[in-house]
Design goal:
This protein has about 240 residues and is α/β, with parallel strands linked by helices. The chain has 2 domains: about 110 residues, Glutaredoxin (3-Layer(aba) Sandwich); about 110 residues, Glutathione S-transferase Yfyf (Class Pi), Chain A, domain 2 (Up-down Bundle), CATH 1.20.1050.10. Helix content is about 50%, strand content about 10%. It contains 10 helices and 5 strands; from the N terminus they run E-H-E-E-E-H-H-H-H-H-H-H-H-E-H. Helix 1 packs parallel to helix 2 and helix 1 runs antiparallel to helix 6. The radius of gyration is 18 Å and the shape is globular. InterPro entries: Glutathione-S-Trfase_C-like (IPR010987), Glutathione-S-Trfase_C_sf (IPR036282), Glutathione_S-Trfase (IPR040079), Glutathione_S-Trfase_N (IPR004045), Thioredoxin-like_sf (IPR036249).
């Protein structure tokens, strides 16, 4: 069977991996994980014992977790697409650096804001503190990325890469949490996000998250359930 990407909704960072698959020419399947439905199916522990998404079930039945590892794995499958680069090259190092920044500093900046959704019983003062901390940290990240994009078409320069696929899945959270007027506060970041939102692969990923059945570029072979994968996970 084709590789299976386990993606989380709503607003999962696994969004970027769906975009990455659509930018490539390899068949794949998806398995939807409703992150707010607790507890998760215990079978998922065989995919990722940490119960997090994304995860990628490879053709040989081996699971691969963590966004950075998954995106670099996909990039290495097809270096001709220029979404990734040969290990040891300067371009590879720059991509790794950008993915690491997005996956650590920028991602974690939103943690106080997600805590508002996940933590019960917070009083008004505690809620205001979390929102202020989140806004300050996200503002730092947006300012940094806005500066990088001042004279660049893409995060690494003139060509798109796996970093841009991951970026769109994280940067959209600034809109989701209604933190800023991106167009006026961070115009370069807003321009880049709007350009990506116009991309067919991004529109496909958005439709997938909404529960629709988009056609995509023809590489998507449909959804599978955890139950349907049980025998493969037990191997």
């Amino acid at each position: 069977m084709e590789p299976v990407l386990f993606y989380g909704v709503p607003q999962g960072c696994s969004f970027g991996a769906i975009v990455a698959f659509e930018w490539q020419d390899h068949p794949y399947r998806l398995c939807r994980i409703e992150m707010l439905e607790q507890p998760w199916d215990p079978l998922y522990a065989k995919v990722n014992p940490l119960f997090q998404t994304p995860a990628l079930l490879l053709e040989d039945g081996e699971p691969l977790t963590e966004s950075l590892a998954i995106l670099q794995h996909l990039a290495a499958r097809d270096l001709e697409t220029k979404l990734g680069f040969e290990q040891g090259s300067r371009e590879f190092d720059r991509l790794n650096q950008m993915l690491a920044y997005l996956n650590t500093d920028f991602f974690s900046a939103f943690n106080p804001l997600w805590a508002l959704y996940e933590t019960q019983g917070l009083n008004g003062v505690e809620q205001a503190l979390l929102r202020r901390l989140g806004r300050e940290r996200v503002a730092e990240g947006c300012a940094y990325l806005d500066g990088l994009l001042d004279k660049r078409e893409w995060l690494l320069g003139e060509e798109r890469s796996m970093a841009d696929a991951y970026f769109v899945g994280i940067a959209r959270w600034a809109e989701y949490h209604r933190l800023f007027d991106l167009e006026s506060d961070y115009p370069n970041l807003a321009r880049h996000l709007a350009k990506l939102r116009d991309d067919p692969a991004v529109r496909f990923a958005e439709a997938i998250e909404r529960g629709e059945q988009p056609a995509g570029q023809g590489h998507f072979k449909g959804h599978v359930t955890l139950k349907e994968l049980e025998s493969r996970l037990a191997a």
